[in-house]
Amino acid sequence: MASVVVNGRLDVEAVRSHFPALQQNQVFLDNAGGSQILSDAIHSLPSSIRTYFEETNVQLGASYNVGQKATQKYNQGLQAAAQFVNANADEIGTIRQTLGISSNLSVIGPSTTQLFSNLSQAFALSFPDDAEIICSALDHEANISPWVRLAKTRNLKVQWWTPSGGDLKLTAENLRPFMSDKTKLVTCTHTSNILGTIHDIGEIADEVHKTPGAMLCVDGVAYAPHREVDVKALGVDFYSFSWYKVRHLLFNRSRHTWLTAQVYGPHIAALYGSQDAQQNVTSLGHYFHTPADNLATKLGLAAASYELVATIPSILAYFGPDRKKTWSAITAHEQRLQEILLDYLTKREDVTVYGERSADSELRVPVVSFSVKGKSSKAVVEKVDGCSDFGIRWGHFYSKRMVDDLLGLKTDGVIRVSMVHYNTGMSIRSILADISCVS
Questions:
Q1: pLDDT per residue over 263-307, tens digit each?
Q2: Fewer CB within 10 Å: N-end or C-end of the chain?
Q3: Taking the CB of residue 255, how many other CB atoms lie within 10 A of it?
């Protein structure tokens, strides 16, 4: 990916060359819901899948030659996943060339929704009877329902963390009143998939950890496509994101422009857990697994597709040898894109932008949701569908509690436009022209 950063700026045309889906006609503006896959990951899929079934379709951890090859490929995928979030190489659950498994801090699974559900089940026996769970009301349901079910099963108390103020921003300050010596778990999003506002997870983690035994579980699905994730710096206990959302894109056939939203890989997800936090996780696996077993053994339930895990190194390689430089260029480019969109929307008196109204990249990612006074979100989107190739979307996007209860948009939710680094300024201006015509 080093070649796509020229003189500190992102070469968008070079970026777009890495995504084959940009050659189709449909303009996908439903970007935060999923992403197109990186070409290197696509090209590695046929080879890895074919090789797996032809040469390495064996149980991982075996000591014979083919078993070692299969285990090596899987371990390389896990190592790349750890590097992506700055987990230590010796903390990522590599499988020994025996029947045993080493300690690790991550697990690969089908989706973030599934991984959080597994995690909640693993907490079922470890939480005390008077434990309290604090759930952010701004979250995708993936990071709410598991904890509500757990509380109902164990008769535990759920505190709803609902920040006041129009920006609906989660902070350490507005979390503090909900904390108590009974708090066992706090769950929140790094960035809402509706609002795009970035929450200071480092400060929130510090606040959570002032209470002995309290843990923080973060949904990073809407953040990971846009910013570098460093779990060590954040101080989180658990952090999950989906590889297929780290993006999505959109092509306007007549204008030859693109818009997008979501990490450039296959439909699998990763969950990080700190070493200390893992001590609270009861294994969902077989009876002979011990408390010392790793997170993958406790929660994975052999659900990680070995051939898909093998594509993760190609995703990491996309960012080049200097990932910080690449992320910096991506951030700057995305800020320019959201400046165009937000400048238009915030000047319209009949438009309400939800979440952070500033285009400052320190405050938000380019996932922008809004509504138009006197017009249904569904009607606006369907009119755009009818007059252009742009595919934007309306709805609650699985953040239904927030959209219904906090935004008051129960009927048809918001209009959402989400962008990523392979979008261009011209494409954003084009979709704004279409929105202006129909609304």
A1: 556 778 999 999 889 889 999 988 887 767 788 888 888 888 887
A2: C
A3: 18
Residue 101 above 60 pLDDT? no
Give the H or E element holding residue 273: strand 269-273
CA distance 318 to 48: 18
And the tokens for 132?
């309290």
Structure confidence at residue 234 as a pLDDT band (50, 70, 90): very high
Q: Which residues are within 8 A (CB) of 158 and not within 5 positions of it... i.e. 6 or more apart? A: 132, 133, 134, 135, 147, 148, 151
Q: Are 284 and 298 in contact (CB under 8 A)?
A: yes
Please check the confidence at residue 131 and state whether its pLDDT lies above 70: yes
- Could you tell me how many residues make up the chain? 439
Q: Are 380 and 224 in contact (CB under 8 A)?
A: no
Radius of gyration of the chain (CA): 22
pLDDT mean across residues, the chain: 84
User: How many whole angstroms separate alpha carbon 20 and alpha carbon 67?
Assistant: 34
The two structure tokens encoding residue 72: 């090596």
AA identity, residue 419 = M
Q: Per residue, what are the HEC states of 229-241? A: CCHHHHCCCEEEE
Residue whose tokens read 């999505």? 248
Would you state the pLDDT for residue 414?
Answer: 98
Distance CA 397, CA 400 (A): 7
191 — pLDDT class (breaks 50, 70, 90)? very high
Residue from 215, 261, 214, 258 nearest 242 by CA: 261
The predicted structure's pLDDT at residue 52: 66
Distances (CA, A) of 122 to 114, 274, 284, 285: 12, 15, 6, 10
Helix (H, G, I), strand (E, B) or coil at 300: helix
309 confidence band (pLDDT: 50, 70, 90):
confident
**Is there a contact between 304 and 108 (Cβ–Cβ < 8 Å)?**
yes
**Per-residue buried b or exposed e for 198-221, using 16+ beta carbons within 10 Å of the residue's own CB:** bbebebbbebbbeeeebbbbbbbb
Distance CA 236, CA 275 (A): 11
**pLDDT tier at 74 (50, 70, 90 boundaries)?**
confident
